[in-house]
Sequence to fold (162 residues):
Amino acid sequence: MPVKALYPGTFDPPTNGHVDLIQRGAKIFDSLIVAILVNPVKNPLFTVEERVEMLEEVASPLGNVSVATFNGLMVDFARQQGATAVLRGIRAISDYEHEFQMALMNRRLAPEIETVFLQPAGRYSFVSSRMVKEVFSFGGDVTGLVPPNVLKRLRARINGGS
Ligand SMILES: Nc1ncnc2c1ncn2[C@@H]1O[C@H](COP(=O)(O)OP(=O)(O)OP(=O)(O)O)[C@@H](O)[C@H]1O
Ligand SMILES: [Mg+2]
Fold:
């Protein structure tokens, strides 16, 4: 049976760490849905629509990756989409504790869904959306840490002041 996986996250903005994981996921799953959690509490820099556009530019060259948005319980959305696997990334031990808790809670909620952890290439193991925003906002160079389309939007958003 084809395996459909969900890759949930905030993606505010997508980084090359996310892209690395999406590319690895696209190789091992028959299809992959990148799912943006709509969480207004997090006060995001980019709107959900902007994040969809940025991720679609990453997904479109890969034939089996699509982009969606959801709110509420991730496992409810996974079930609704017919996904039987959830993809998550582990950058360092610091990610592990939180990811481990979430995976086990999700297993309790939806025992038929497996969480699969992948490691990014070492050069992305320190990259997070939060760090990218922080460094960029103080004038630091984030070239190579985010896709070119994301860099363009960061420039427009932060330097352009809109
Ligand atoms: N550089 C990376 N390498 C591998 N996995 C990553 C990387 N960045 C994020 N992930 C994984 O992608 C998933 C979604 O992450 P999320 O949207 O929270 O990104 P983030 O970069 O951690 O953002 P934030 O800094 O806002 O928390 C999580 O499983 C996270 O561990
Ligand atoms: Mg995070």
